[in-house]
Amino acid sequence: MKGRDRAALESLRRYTRYNVLFSMIAVASVLLLSEVRDQPSPLRLAGLAAGLVLVGLGHWRWTVRSIDRPAGRMPWWQAVAFTAVAGGLLVVAFTTVGNGAVWALAAGLIGHDLLVGRFPEAGWRFAAGFAALMGVVVTVTMLVTGEDAVLQQVVLVFWLTLVMTGAEVVLLRQWTLTLELEKARLDAAELATTKERLRLAEDLHDILGHALEVVSLKSELASRLSEVDPERSRAELTEVQRLARGAVHDVRALVQGRRSTELAIELAGARGLLESAGIRWQFTGDPARLGAEASQLLGRVLREAVTNLLRHADATHCLVRLEIRRDRAVLHVRNDGVAPMREDGREGSGLRGLTRRITEAGGEFSAEAHGNAFEVRAEVPR
């Protein structure tokens, strides 16, 4: 159990203990004071007090312990004991006590415990059993006393039972709904945090994967040119430094929420990288006609496609085509060097992240080989 759930449960236990204790004191005070007024014998007063103690202990045991026990799991022997005590109190109250209607409070309390304790799994059975008990009590009492007034007291018992049961069910239901809403709120917060972490991981993959791949490419090129063309070798090393600083800047911008991946910016970077790698480049389309969100999404697609091309494919030509339709934009990135799949046949994390992002934006994404070519296609709302 999580800490917040444990604290909520302990709060419910504390509230229930106080509630049960105060209700027991109130009921016992009313009942005993009603008897003291009539100056009963000490023996009868002691017997009635003992009955109240039994009722109170049973009510305390069931109500407090029911917090940790699923509904509908009240032990059968407790139900039998409760019923027996209720019947005994009613018979005694209706036959020997002048104010039996007041003692209906105790019987109603026990009836409440029976119904709430067994509801909903077997509530109707105990409701029927309680009704049968009332019928037996009425019959026995009428045979002993010959009074019809006892029916009024039995009706009072029923009403007290229903009122207390209804109030308890409403309170418990409100508490349950409160806990469920709080749990849903916390789960939503955790989900949002997880999604943000996933987004950050994907962005870091895009930034560092792209930057490291280009640094590796240009470092190798500078090494090869160091003897045949030292001037260009120094230029490539200078470019490596610039790329490394750019990656650091992008990571900082990502953390601060200022990083941009607009398609126009990514096109300029992709062109320079591909030309440095000796790959012919061709682009058609007008990125200025894109909306801000579409431009950001397609910029990510182009960056990932170029990174994978440099890392995996043996390409000599790359064609990038942007199609603007009425309310959709489609980006095609096609190269003539098929990028191999992973050994397990699955897409890399970058492609999976793009698929998720574009799908969430209402678009479509695919990355497939067509003969000797490999094409990345992304369609997003314009």
UniProtKB/TrEMBL annotation:
GO molecular function: phosphorelay sensor kinase activity; protein dimerization activity
Residues in Signal transduction histidine kinase subgroup 3 dimerisation and phosphoacceptor domain copies: 196-262
Transmembrane segments: 20-37, 43-62, 126-144, 150-172
Keywords, alphabetical: Kinase, Membrane, Transferase, Transmembrane, Transmembrane helix, Two-component regulatory system
Keyword Ion transport: no
Cellular component, GO, one term: membrane
Keyword Metal-binding: no
Gene3D superfamilies xrefs: 1.20.5.1930, Histidine kinase-like ATPase, C-terminal domain
Protein name: Signal transduction histidine kinase subgroup 3 dimerisation and phosphoacceptor domain-containing protein
Protein species of origin: Amycolatopsis albispora
